[in-house]
Specification:
Chain A: This is F-box domain-containing protein. The structure holds two protein chains of two kinds. Chain A is an alpha/beta fold. Chain A contains six helices and seven strands. The chains are: A alpha/beta, B mainly alpha.
């Protein structure tokens, strides 16, 4: 009787390619060997949206049209953070909520972003930022997008009325729209540079 | 299982008892080949169905077998269980000359058989079936926690892995010591 351990690395990678984002995250936590297999397997994400508001952060990851993950990291009244997670469902009953007594929403957001995307094998077509008026983009988030390993084609600011404010923080980080030459084969490149 | 025949064979391959049942007889008669797994049960498969397997297709084109030769020398796949080979043969027959559908619901759901099937299909180089099987394996752990995945896929923990590695090293060391002792004894 064969099991997961009997599969070759190539076969395991073939399976990992078919896992969704949370499946990959769960498999990463099972053992060191599987973690490195997951990290070495290409993962394509259509769109990542990061919304920053006074109440907290929202990360929406679209891997396919019908496959998305929504993680909301909110301020907890007595410190800490409240994390709401939903996957492929708008039904409020399907939302998984977790209260964390330690850490700030910014800390958990960066940790999640790091766990989700900080690999050279992750290719994101578009990263969108939505920054609520009067809110500054935290340095930690800007640094994450500046120095993490994922590759992206395009970075956009959406509805950010205080784009100037964000850009002040963001002097070293230039959000550029990288338009791919249609004649050339699409190539994922990091467009957020220090 | 219309075009697959089974028969037991020990040293000599089993003789197929009936001719292939093809309702609409093609102008050029279809050639058939024979494969057997660990259980030595011989399966008769048409060349069209075997097109799915890059390994067998390559073997056929390289060996240039006639039908008589193919009957006398079934392809042996000793590393594949009989029931798993049967599944593969059935799948090849079902999808003979047809475009492969995006989903295949006929694949086994039991994890033991599924992993064996993945290994067999990978060995036989059946790309489409491998894609289905890997998808099925991935579906097994959809929405599961790391602990559940470890249980479903029987993934050893890092501590268990280390212990197994240590034990293997110990065993290898003992074997090496035994060999050197035997060699020294021979020299004397």
């Amino acid at each position: 009787m064969a099991g997961w351990s009997d599969l070759s690395v190539d076969l395991k990678k073939n399976v990992v390619e078919k896992l969704d984002l949370m499946g990959r995250q769960s498999l990463r936590c099972t053992s060191h060997a599987d973690r490195s297999i997951v990290d070495d397997t290409d993962f394509h994400i259509s769109r990542v949206r990061l919304s920053i508001s006074k109440s907290g952060y929202l990360i929406v990851v679209h891997t396919r049209i019908d496959d998305w993950l929504r993680v909301e990291i909110l301020n907890r009244p007595n410190g800490g953070a409240i994390i709401n997670k939903s996957q492929n469902s708008w039904n409020p009953e399907d939302v998984v909520t977790k209260e964390l007594e330690e850490g700030t929403p910014e800390f958990w957001t960066i940790l999640l972003l790091h766990n989700f995307f900080d690999y050279g094998t992750t290719k994101i077509d578009a990263v969108e930022f939505e920054i609520e008026g009067g809110t500054d983009a935290p340095k930690g988030v800007i640094f994450f997008f500046a120095f993490s390993d994922f590759q992206t084609l395009e970075t956009e600011h959406l509805k950010s009325r205080n784009l100037k404010n964000a850009s002040k923080h963001n002097k070293s980080v230039k959000a550029q729209k990288v338009r791919q030459d249609t004649k050339k084969a699409p190539r994922h490149e990091k467009c957020v540079k220090a | 299982m219309s075009s697959t025949e089974q028969g037991t064979s020990s040293a000599a391959p089993a003789e197929p008892t009936t001719a292939p049942e093809s309702a609409a007889a093609p102008e050029v008669p279809e050639s058939f080949y024979y494969v057997h797994g660990k259980d030595k049960v011989v399966h008769k498969v048409s060349a069209g169905a075997l097109q799915h397997s890059a390994l067998i297709h390559g073997m056929i084109s390289n060996l240039g077998y006639t039908e008589e030769q193919a009957k006398a020398n079934p392809f042996p796949f000793e590393n594949i269980d009989g029931d798993i080979l049967q599944m593969v043969v059935d799948w090849c027959n079902q999808h003979k000359g047809k475009p492969t559908p995006p989903e295949d619901t006929n694949l086994p759901k039991q994890k033991e058989k599924l992993f064996d099937l993945v290994l067999a299909v990978n060995y036989l180089e059946i790309k489409e079936l491998l894609t289905y099987c890997c998808k099925q394996v991935a579906m097994m752990v959809k929405g599961k926690s790391p602990e559940e995945i470890r249980e479903i896929w029987m993934i050893p923990t890092d501590a268990e892995d280390e212990a197994a590695e240590k034990e293997a090293k110990k065993r290898a060391g003992k074997e090496a010591a035994g060999e050197t002792a035997a060699a020294a004894g021979d020299a004397k």
